[in-house]
Amino acid sequence: MLVLTSAGTAMSQERFPDPPPAHGLYSDAVRVGDLVLLSGVVSGDPDPAQQFRGIFERIDRILQEAGSGLDQIVDMTTYHVDMHEHIDAFIEVTVIVAVGDGG
């Protein structure tokens, strides 16, 4: 992902978490101005529904730390190794995230 600003505009970056996590020398999110950008949020859980729940919980924690939340997401691109196998679980979890679980 490449984010550009107009020429001559200085933009500062704030990384979350700070310091970076033990799993790598990269941040889970970067804030530039009013934008919070996330990339590479994954899960190793073998169950697709648990994977998606865990990923959205992690995204929510990261966004909360950055002063935002799931309700502020304006665009999301996801990558799936086997979308046909996982589509039902993905839809179930994204609906719960979007409208709440009623609890």
List the helices and strands and how they pair.
Elements: E1 13-16, E2 29-32, E3 35-38, H1 48-65, H2 83-99
Antiparallel strand pairs: 1-2, 2-3
Helix pairs in contact: 1-2
What do you see in this structure?
This protein is α+β, with helices and mostly antiparallel strands and 103 residues long. It has a single domain, classed as 60s Ribosomal Protein L30, Chain: A (2-Layer Sandwich). Helices cover 34% and strands 12% of the residues. It has 2 helices and 3 strands, in the order βββαα. The protein has helices at residues 48-65, 83-99, and strands at residues 13-16, 29-32, 35-38. It has a 3-stranded antiparallel beta sheet, covered by helices on one side. β2 (29-32) and β3 form a beta hairpin. α1 (48-65) packs across α2 (83-99). The longest helix has 18 residues, at 48-65. It is globular and about 40 Å long. The model has no long low-confidence stretch (mean pLDDT 77).
How would you concisely characterize the structure shown here?
Helix content is 34%, strand content 12%. The protein has helices at 48-65, 83-99; strands at residues 13-16, 29-32, 35-38. Strand 2 (29-32) and strand 3 form a beta hairpin.
List keywords for this structure.
60s Ribosomal Protein L30, Chain: A, 12% strand, 103 residues, 3-stranded antiparallel beta sheet, alpha+beta
Can you give the mean pLDDT? 77
- What is the total tally of β strands? 3
**Which geometry do the CA atoms define?**
globular
Ends apart, CA distance between termini: 36 Å
Spatial order of the strands forming the largest sheet: 1-2-3
**In terms of structural class, how would the helical and strand content be classed?**
alpha+beta
Helix and strand succession?
EEEHH
Summarize the main sheet: 3 strands, antiparallel
List low-confidence stretches. none
CATH architecture: 2-Layer Sandwich
CATH class: Alpha Beta
The share of residues in helices is: 25-40%
Tally of individual domains: 1
User: What is the CATH topology?
Assistant: 60s Ribosomal Protein L30, Chain: A
Helix run count = 2
Query: How much beta, percentage-wise?
Result: 5-15%
CATH superfamily label: RutC-like
Radius of gyration: 15 Å
